Design the sequence.
């Protein structure tokens, strides 16, 4: 049984902690907001057991002998971490990165589309909201954010001061025809006008010419967030975690994705500079994957997974979990890692640590569920 | 914009400058639905006015694609067994080989050419709808060489038939069974699993296709199926499909596929399989007999009919269609027993009736194709340009456009639910920036066949836009016209 870093999450009463309600709505400029929150959306359902293998649970090796990374780093006798996480592992050593294992959004139907919708919308019922939890949180404090993707993801919807940056690369049209843009802004209305005006702004502030691979985007987002009046929050996508076939062990497509993710954390830190000390970067994914390998050297949609957090606001570098165990009778529906930590409680904690919205308020207003456990003190330095 | 031009853009790709306008829109729908397909294009951007039939040398059938897949797999094996190459070098060599020897680049070009030059514009839009509904994306192992076959054969040849046959064709198609891993799924009691056990290999069920068949393609989660039922459906699906890209160990065991009946016996589940017993009774049959029955059941299920009638209305009529719109399509569906021509006719006619009261913000892909088509511009390289270094000042490759706009059928980063149906997903500044730049590209390099003010007057664009165009330079005029609110939202 893994007892290290055991968290008695389920016993925490939501009314136990009493934090004053911050007067957030009154704040006008981002210069008053020193802290930053970065979200990395892992699309497809990341395999938490491959990323952060629970090596202290010997059942792991029975369930998926061909999916074990033979060159992983050991965090302690209970958990290893993928050899692709070289940078993240060293951040853990410095006390600037942690993993919350056996975590998941309380969603058990294993559909990508519903799953991505709930982890971004933040409500338990799929497709029940047109706005995202981060958008609602930023609207609450009146602070801008930035999305690094072609379309605005659901997670940041709900607040108009959020820009989407994903520079175009069209041969034969290096620059935008600004006279046309001016005329079109006048001729249009509604969300089209809104978008046209944001394009005008991105020309004047230079973001239109940025490089756009995820790692460069993370670096430039970090740089922008480092500025005194920069975006408070940013969102970046990493795709390709739906590893149904030929997932790989020490190499392969899953490891390649994890390497990319590791570089994104690194690029954020480099871009943020000193601002890193006041930052939280966290991953979210729609679900984990089956504990057993499937018929095609891959894994199917599951439930519990691992959530990765990094930044100077972390309390320490460790794996936090209430480990459910991998014996068949401990698995969710006898196939998936059980989730013992609600992803929403990590989201609430990150919102409180960076946006100063108290847990009681965000759980009730942003996630519409006041029973979400408050675990902030385990994750972040107070 | 004039009603007829709006309608052509709502349900089609708009009229080319030299195209004769139909006098009766309802008859036009009918003739478009029954018109033979047209594959027109240009050989080279150096001679853009010579529009011809696509040449046979760049049209490939499924057998040729299968042989190419086999050759590609041999290349993979050859390079992987070459100890002097590292992983990056192997990838690079395979990429170059694929570029030269696989048909994908020509396929993508052919798709864009047809959209720009052919007259069967409504048929093409219906194809986009269904290809987006039954979405497959660019695979890692097959390099997308099955996609054109999927669009032109598995999907489009069925648009004159029943939805049931379309569903059957899609579910057993090489592209879908590759994309959603069904060709890697074996029944638990199958010969393949027995063989794998004896040889210490891994084989078993993979439920990816089963899940999406229920959730996305037909009845939706509203049906209330269970995880066990998904697994039973996976057992029925195991063995179906055609493997053109399997890598590694299985090469030795490959058998030539039966193109008419893509069923791999050694992967099929043995014994009788029962699922949805309440509706189907217990005599469901063996894996090979069960799939046709399962497809019948799903294709004709009221939830499937409701789901797809709604989606068709959302696509053509309005993001938020009225119940009365949906009912028209549902009725046509039920009355015709799922005949796609009748269903399409119902939704398109209803769109015409409701054109004055509704607007739709155009998809990035349809907007771009309409912009090129209506200006008579030539921006997409010709079939002979695809593999040659061009001396032209500028040429657009279909692939680059697809990647830039984030929409199309040769993309790797979309999910099985395809490109979004909701306009808010393609209204971001990043999307709008692309439209502005593409409009500049068309103006500067496409050699439009008229001045912007002429097109504005042909289409009946509102005076405020026309005034702004008259006083602008040609490039500015084109960008204003092509990105004006009434061109984006028709």
Sequence:
């Amino acid at each position: 049984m893994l007892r290290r870093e055991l968290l008695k999450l389920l016993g925490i009463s939501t009314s136990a902690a009493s934090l004053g309600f911050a007067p957030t709505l009154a704040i006008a400029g981002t210069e008053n907001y020193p802290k930053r929150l970065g979200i990395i959306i892992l699309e497809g359902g990341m395999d938490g057991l491959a990323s952060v293998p629970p090596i202290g649970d010997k059942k792991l090796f029975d369930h998926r002998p061909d999916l074990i990374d033979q060159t992983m780093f050991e965090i302690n006798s209970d958990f290893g971490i993928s050899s692709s996480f070289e940078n993240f592992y060293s951040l853990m050593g410095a006390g600037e990165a942690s993993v919350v294992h056996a975590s998941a959004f309380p969603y058990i139907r294993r559909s990508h589309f519903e799953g991505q919708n709930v982890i971004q919308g933040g409500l338990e019922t799929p497709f029940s909201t047109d706005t995202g939890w981060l958008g609602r949180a930023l609207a609450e404090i009146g602070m801008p954010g930035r999305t690094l993707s072609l379309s605005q993801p659901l997670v940041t919807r709900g607040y108009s001061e959020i820009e989407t940056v994903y520079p175009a690369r069209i041969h034969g049209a290096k620059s935008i025809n600004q006279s046309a843009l001016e005329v079109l802004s006048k001729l249009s209305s509604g969300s089209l006008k809104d978008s046209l005006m944001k394009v005008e702004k991105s020309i004047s502030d230079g973001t239109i010419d940025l490089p756009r691979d995820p790692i460069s985007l993370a670096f430039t987002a970090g740089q922008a967030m480092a500025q005194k009046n920069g975006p408070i929050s940013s969102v970046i996508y990493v795709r390709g975690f739906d590893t149904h076939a030929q997932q790989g062990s020490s190499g392969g497509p899953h490891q390649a994705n994890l390497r990319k993710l590791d570089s994104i954390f690194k690029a954020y830190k480099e871009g943020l500079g000193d601002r890193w000390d006041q930052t939280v970067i966290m991953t979210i994914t729609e679900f984990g994957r089956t504990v057993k390998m499937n018929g095609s050297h891959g894994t199917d949609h599951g439930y519990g997974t691992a959530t990765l957090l990094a930044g100077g606001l972390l309390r320490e570098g460790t794996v936090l979990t209430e480990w459910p165990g991998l014996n068949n009778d401990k698995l969710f529906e006898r196939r998936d890692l059980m989730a013992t930590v609600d992803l929403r409680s990590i989201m609430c904690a990150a919102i409180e640590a960076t946006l100063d919205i108290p847990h009681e308020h965000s759980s009730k207003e942003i996630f519409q569920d006041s029973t979400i456990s408050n675990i902030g003190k385990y994750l972040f330095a107070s | 914009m004039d009603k007829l031009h709006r309608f052509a853009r709502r349900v089609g790709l708009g009229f080319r400058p030299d195209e004769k306008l139909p006098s009766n829109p309802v008859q036009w729908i009918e003739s478009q639905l029954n018109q033979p397909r047209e594959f027109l294009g240009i050989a080279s951007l150096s001679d853009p006015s010579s529009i011809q039939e696509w040449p046979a040398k760049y049209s490939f059938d499924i057998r040729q694609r299968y042989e190419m897949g086999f050759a590609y797999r041999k290349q993979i094996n050859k390079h992987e067994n070459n100890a002097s190459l590292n992983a990056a070098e192997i990838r690079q060599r395979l990429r170059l080989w694929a570029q030269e020897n696989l048909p994908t680049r020509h396929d993508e070009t052919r798709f864009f050419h047809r959209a720009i030059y052919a007259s069967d514009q409504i048929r093409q839009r219906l194809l986009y709808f269904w290809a987006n509904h039954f979405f497959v994306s660019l695979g890692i192992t097959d390099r997308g060489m099955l996609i054109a076959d999927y669009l032109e054969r598995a999907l489009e040849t069925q648009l004159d038939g029943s939805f049931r046959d379309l569903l059957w064709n899609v579910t057993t198609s090489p592209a879908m069974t590759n994309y959603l891993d069904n060709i890697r799924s074996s029944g638990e009691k199958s010969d393949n699993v027995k063989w794998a056990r004896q040889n210490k290999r891994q084989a078993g069920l993979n439920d990816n296709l089963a899940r999406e068949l229920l959730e996305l393609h037909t009845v939706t989660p509203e049906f209330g199926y269970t995880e066990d039922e998904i697994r039973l459906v996976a057992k029925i699906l195991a063995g179906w499909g055609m493997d053109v890209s399997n890598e590694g160990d299985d090469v030795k065991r490959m058998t030539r596929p039966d193109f008419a009946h893509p069923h791999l016996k050694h992967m099929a589940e043995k014994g009788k399989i029962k699922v949805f017993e309440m509706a189907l009774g217990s005599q469901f049959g063996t894996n090979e007999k069960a799939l046709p029955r399962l497809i019948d059941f799903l294709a004709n299920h009221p939830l499937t009919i409701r789901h797809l009638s709604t989606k068709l209305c959302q696509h053509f009529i309005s993001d938020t269609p009225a119940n009365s719109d949906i009912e028209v399509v549902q009725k046509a569906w039920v009355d015709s027993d799922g005949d796609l021509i009748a269903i399409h006719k119902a939704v398109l006619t209803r769109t015409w009736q409701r054109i004055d009261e509704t607007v739709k913000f155009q998809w990035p892909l349809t907007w771009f194709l309409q912009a090129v088509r209506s200006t008579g511009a030539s921006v997409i390289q010709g079939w002979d340009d695809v593999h040659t270094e061009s001396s032209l000042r500028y040429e657009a490759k279909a692939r680059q456009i697809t990647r830039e706009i984030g929409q199309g059928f040769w993309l790797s980063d979309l999910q099985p639910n395809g490109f979004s149906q909701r306009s808010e997903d393609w209204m971001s500044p990043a999307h709008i920036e692309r439209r502005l730049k593409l409009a500049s590209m068309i103006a500067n390099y496409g050699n439009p066949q008229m001045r912007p003010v002429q097109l504005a007057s042909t289409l009946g664009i509102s005076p405020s836009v026309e005034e702004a165009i008259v006083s602008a330079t040609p490039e500015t005029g084109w960008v204003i016209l092509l990105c004006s609110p009434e061109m984006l939202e028709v």
Notes: The radius of gyration of chain A is 21 Å. Chain A has twelve helices and eleven strands. Chain A touches chain B through 60 residues (CB under 8 Å).
